[in-house]
Design goal:
alpha/beta, 6 helices, disordered C terminus
Amino acid sequence: MARRKKLNDRSGRHDPAYLRAKRENFAARAIYKLEEIDKKYRLFRRGNRVIDLGCWPGSWMQYAAEKVGDEGYIYGLDLREVALALPSWVETDVADVYAWNPIETFGEDFARFNVVMSDMAPQTTGDRHSDVYRSEELCRRAFEIGRTVLRPGGKIVVKVFQGGGFRELLRELQLTYQEAKPFHARNTRSGSTEQYLIGRGLKASALLKPQPPPPSELAPSEATTIE
């Protein structure tokens, strides 16, 4: 009986896409997945503001930076620091996506974004059910952030390991965006269950108002003083 591959199986990492990325000085082969998605759904325009969730090692930011140009802005966050040299209009931060608050980063009156992209994946355990569940939770968190930071009409692309909750996630996307589609990239490794969920045209009715962190989470100098 053939052994089932783990969700993060790296046995084929030196495939043509990986080798091409190394030749072309991109941080990871994932750049070609984003390129494929962008060609089909036209995610980026010059001057766009973009958030990249789970941005390490940086290949998606490399691609998006070229698309939005120096009139645009890209903010990436990840649990790991990005060591890649990136253009001046790209900023990265080390943060937990579940704890991250846009008001703490950009202020209460921040300009909303055009695109949220997420290639986040959990640290896999080898237990397929657990790994899929955690991937779906990351996807839901990306959806929440999208509704909080995107402007009406904004776009989102989120990776998820396909499992029992996939239809529910797609339905959630359909309720909040004018167009919602699943997408399987050609450059996905054989045996992988990863899919992308694409939303275009965030509905104004689906916007969430950014909430400041509770006072207990503010730095002492930022906390409200009652006299």
